[in-house]
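Before surveying the methods themselves, let us examine one representative protein, pairing a chain with its fold in token form.
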Amino acid sequence: HLSLRRQRQMCIRDRPVTVVVPFVAGSPTDIVARAFASEFSLALNTPVLVDNKPGANQTIAGSYVSRAAPDGYTLFFANLPAVVAPSLRASLPYQGVGDFAPVSDVLTIGFMLVTAPSVPATTLKEFVALLKADPSKYSYGSSGISTPIHLMAEMFNKELGVKTLHVPYKGANQVQLDLMSDRVTYAFLPTGTMDYVRAGKLKAFGLAASQRDPAYPELPTMEESGMPGFKATVNFVLVGPKKTPPDVLAKLNAAANKVVGSDAFYGKVKPVGGVELSRPATTAQVGAHIAAEEARWNALIKRADIQLE
């Protein structure tokens, strides 16, 4: 029989590592995950496979990984915010991404505030004035309750002190279509939507990130447009099952840090838009970041009285 130490030494070398993605193939998360997996494989000198397990606001993928053997071969490519509805928690083997073993921060994608083309405003300041004057006239779209773009819009509303109608859809593409058709007023969407802004089919009032997207230099940040400190971002993090041994996590973390700081990886994910690569970090730093993000979004849910069931 191999000793436990010998088994750990073999880990991450004798079979492929699987990165489980909680969204469908072709989605922004999937594109980023596959770019990461390609570079991660080189850094580990081990094949890395991508397995899509979409649905239930990431909980299908999360449940699968949380029940996997904690040996470093099955990892979860999670998005933050990743809110778990209280009604589901009794049947789930985890409470949040913080219940997993942290491996690496990967990158952040900033979302932009877009509106229907008929909105009579040309700047963020003017749009904010419209909302404050009569919020009951306006609505925002999301890809479902507790999804990132729902929480982003609620954060925006709380910042302004307004309450507008929430219109949930089954996906962001439907939100975009109804924005262009003037069925809803505004939403937070990825910068890939800028092609429709340039074509006059949507209006954009700011990128809710720390810096402008080089691909769309004409789009100011929300801070530049008059909302200091406002950020609406999705964070991509890599985590494993809770009891993954520290030495295995250290090996995975070292390989992941080579990827997130590389020009090769940035070149592959840059077309997604609004991308900011994470800095190499220790597993402890990654864990602290995940905990802080979950606390921030959970506080918003409580403050906005968002019902997740």
Summary: The longest helix spans residues 283-303. The CA atoms of residues 81 and 148 lie 6 Å apart.
